[in-house]
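seq as requested:
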Amino acid sequence: MNSLIEESVIKLAEKFQLPERIVNIEELPWVPFTDNHSCYFKPLRFDLNTGTWIYLFKMKSNQVLGRHRHTGGSVLGYNIQGKWRYEGREWVAVPGTFIFEPPGDIHTLITEDEEVVTLFILGGSLQYFDENDHFIGQDDVYTVLNKYRVFCELHGIQTRDDLIY
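struct tokens:
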């Protein structure tokens, strides 16, 4: 009886599971994330069901990503290149650093003397604040997807709809 149930569960899982996705990151463009072009991203996944977005984030050396807060879920990061930190914190992310960030904290990201590349997985929104902690804007899976699509359209690049799943 157990083997019949197990076989049934396997068939059911196979029926509903998503297909594998393989993405060669060299085929994806670096899309400007900020208006001043100090930050860029390569989209790897847009999950419109959960609001999760996965991307490589590149930031030029000696830059600041202003005051912001993550909502809706934790942020997971893995630093690949360069050094960065949050203003007022004692830690510095160097290549090989894993970062877990719970939602809610307002912080400012600062890069050091070299370009930074970090893999980020985050859900919910990225809210921006001025120096007085007044809300001034936000990004989420939809605004970031739109940045990607608009950039591709302006530069004659075919969008990758297989990144949406």
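The chain has one domain: 23-163.
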